[in-house]
Amino acid sequence: MLIRQPDDIRPSEITPPEIYRERRRFMQGMGALAAGTMLGTVPEALAGVKLAGVRTSAYKLDEENTPFKDVTTYNNFYEFGTGKADPAENAGSLRTRPWAVTVEGEVGNPRTYDIDTLLRLAPLEERVYRMRCVEGWSMVIPWVGFPLHEIIRRAAPTGNAKYVEFVTLNDPSQMPGQRSRVLDWPYVEGLRMDEAMNPLTLLAVGLYGEVLPNQNGAPVRLVVPWKYGFKSAKSIVRIRFVEKQPLTAWMRATPSEYGFYSNVNPQVDHPRWSQAKERRIGEFFKRDTLMFNGYGQQVAQMYRGMDLKKYF
Amino acid sequence: MRTAALSNPKIWIFGICLLPLARLIVLGLTGGLGANPIEFITHSTGTWTLVGLMVTLSVTPLRRLTGRAELIRYRRMLGLFTFSYACLHFITYIWLDQFFDPAAIAKDIVKRPFITVGFSAFVLLIPLAATSTHGMMRRLGRRWQQLHRLVYVVAMLGVIHYAWLVKKDLTEPLIYGAVLVLLLAMRLPWGVMLLQSVRSRFAPARS
Questions:
Q1: Euclidean distance between the first and the last CA atom of chain B, given in angstroms as a whole number
Q2: Is the peptide bond before A186 cis (omega within 30 degrees of 0)?
Q3: Which of A182, A284, A285 sits opposite B169 (nearest CB)?
Q4: Is the separation of the CB atoms in A110 and A100 below 8 Å?
Q5: Do residues A280 and A253 lie in contact, with contact meaning Cβ atoms separated by under 8 Å?
Q6: pLDDT tens across the length of chain A (312 residues)
Q7: How many CB pairs under 8 A join A and B?
Q8: Could you tell me if B110 lies within 8 Å of chain A, comparing CB atoms?
């Protein structure tokens, strides 16, 4: 005999995700505001707070965005631990205010930006980029930021400026992962001058229209979509213009496996695994990895004549 | 009758060995496998295979340490559970990760040292599982023990497989490596002597 039981919850009673996320964000905001008031400071920008005045841009994709939850809970950010879930769990100890970014080195106009000045340096725009991790997975992320060349132009690099070096915060009291010596801290990354000037190279301060969550590299990070994810330095405190190619953290750690360029390239395998395919987070079947992560039209000319197997 | 069954440690060990699988099923049904479920399942089944190898290899040292010969009765079950998790690990790789792409799998096994090593370890486990029955033990006689010493090789390959696949943080592979070194040392003559001297010092009452 079939006993029909009434459903406990009618569909009309289920709270839509936008509403409960809004509510959650409001509660988090109130909590942080209360904490800020007690400390005598009111934080100006908090993870989860909507960024104002974000323009749309021509940088869009036909591919589906990776859900916010996955983008913010599956991260490689060794400063907060080597597990994928570690950054989301441990990045709460990162203080993003006050925060200063020093622009120095081979420039006519060295300067230290306060983060809130930096946020107003150029109009913020949303750019949807593919993100391909060297480990073989990928995401599609709607970043918010402005092109790096906005800063470079203002810094007035000298003729000696051939490369740009990016340095992440080095403070084990805020970044518990730095207490372990998995990498030589601070995290250093670098780009060739033309790569840094490329219109695609983004200085991101947010994602999904909101202030960048700590675990994603708050308050300001690089996004270089045609290179493996580790090239996109997070929580940047220094941008230095130099003549010699910087020694990046991963080159220092394992020079045979990680090169300076690290362009996404399905034909050049990692010494220990294939780079021909990738798993897009949220998808079951692997998809083919695209040359330069699908940005060949915008970047291939920078590498013309270069042996990409040698300059991996 | 019922209490007799529950007082048999085998029932309990059987249940405990099923917990990692049960956890995966529960997490899978509740959406708890994270952003990359296939990676999660691969890592989890791999981890439990390694843990199973270590637990199986600790039976003999434990027996010598405690003098409880009956511990040997649980070793087969532990070994077979280890093999089951290794099978799940392997199936996850060929089905969920590679989706039965024979060319890609063959290339992986030949070209990727950590896959080569892991695959070898899995292949070497098969004869051990196949000869785990009483009948096979009887039929193989002395050679059974010789054959089953392969498990030392399998465990070493398993640890190397883990160490070679991590990007940078070697902490966990090194922990498994240290445990394995300890378990293997306990089988060397001085290790056996050490275990026996510890036992005679702390458990002199047993005679």
A1: 32
A2: yes
A3: A182
A4: no
A5: no
A6: 555 555 556 555 666 555 555 555 555 555 554 554 444 443 445 777 999 999 999 999 999 999 999 999 999 999 999 999 999 999 999 999 999 999 999 999 999 999 999 999 999 999 999 999 999 999 999 999 999 999 999 999 999 999 999 999 999 999 999 999 899 999 999 999 999 999 999 999 999 999 999 999 999 999 999 999 999 999 999 999 999 999 999 999 999 999 999 999 999 999 888 899 999 999 999 999 999 999 999 999 999 999 999 999
A7: 49
A8: no
Residue appearing with tokens 């203080």: A95
Q: Are B54 and B179 in contact (CB under 8 A)?
A: yes
Best to test chain B binding among A71, A72, A286 (most B CBs inside 10 Å): A286
- ipTM here: 0.79
Residue A285: which of B99, B108, B171 has the nearest Cβ? B99
Pick the closest to residue B76 from B49, B55, B91 (CA basis).
B55
Residues B170, B176, B179, B182: is their CA dihedral positive or negative? Answer: negative
- pLDDT for A257 equals 92
Helix (H, G, I), strand (E, B) or coil at A56: coil
Residues of A in contact with B175 (CB under 8 A): none
pTM metric for this prediction: 0.82
Q: Tokens 């330095």 correspond to what residue?
A: A233
Q: Does B39 touch chain A (CB under 8 A)?
A: yes
Q: Which of B36, B99, B112 sits opposite A272 (nearest CB)?
A: B112
Residues of chain B with pLDDT under 50: 207
A residues 111-150 lying closer than 8 A (beta carbon) to B: 134-135, 137
- Rounded CA-CA distance A90/B198 in Å is 43
Report the candidate in A214, A212, A209, A231 with the shortest Cα–Cα distance to residue A222. Answer: A231
Going by C-beta distance under 8 Å and a sequence separation of 6 or more, which residues neighbour residue A286? A277, A278, A279, B99
Neighbours of A225 (CB within 10 A): 26
**Nearest-CA distance A229 → chain B (Å):** 14
Helix or strand run (H / E) with residue A88: helix A86-90
Q: Which residue, chain included where needed, has tokens 């040698």?
A: A310
